[in-house]
Specification:
By secondary structure, this protein is mainly alpha-helical. The chain has five helices and no strands.
Length: about 170
């Protein structure tokens, strides 16, 4: 129980609150200054890399496996992830995530099959979720694939399927 003479904060709590307020103000000021200096958005031309994910559009990724993007500093097997996705797409083994009936035997079979094959084909330390978007691979890609978007889309598929699996199984 707190007596009426004791302060609301002790010294340490007060200093923590003060530091948090000062840091928050500094970050907000930098953010506003950076936004004020940002150039206007330039439309994407035909010669610039595609920014929309092919994986999100359920299209094959045009990776030739040249390995120009490799080695990834964070361990992602970029060509391996794209090769896996393209093979699953071609065989029709990717479940329809837009489906409202995720209890159907077909969805279940495809979802579990996709996850098991992904985990066996690409070890965890080389999977797409390891990408930190450093953009090194994007600058090296000879096919002008916007790799970070493709890996993020593949990660979104696997994350959604893993969440589904945790709820359903």
């Amino acid at each position: 129980m707190q007596n009426n003479n004791s302060p609301l904060y002790d010294r340490r709590q007060w200093l923590k609150a003060l530091v948090a307020a000062v840091c928050g103000t500094a970050v907000a000021g930098r953010t506003l200054a950076a936004q004020a200096q940002m150039p206007e958005k330039v439309p994407v031309s035909e010669s610039s890399p595609r920014k929309v994910s092919r994986i999100s559009a359920r299209e094959a990724v045009a990776c030739t496996g040249c390995d120009a993007c490799m080695p990834c500093g964070y361990g992602v097997d970029i060509p391996g992830n794209f090769r896996f996705y393209n093979e699953m797409l071609e065989s029709g083994s990717i479940p329809d995530l837009a489906s409202t009936d995720r209890t159907s035997p077909e969805f279940r079979k495809k979802a579990i099959g996709f996850l098991r094959k992904y985990d066996s084909a690409i070890p965890d330390r080389h999977q797409s979720q390891r990408c930190i978007k450093c953009f090194h691979c994007v600058s090296e890609c000879r096919e002008r694939i916007f790799i970070v978007n493709e890996l993020a889309a593949l990660t979104a598929i696997t994350d959604e399927l893993r969440d589904w699996e945790c709820r359903e199984i």
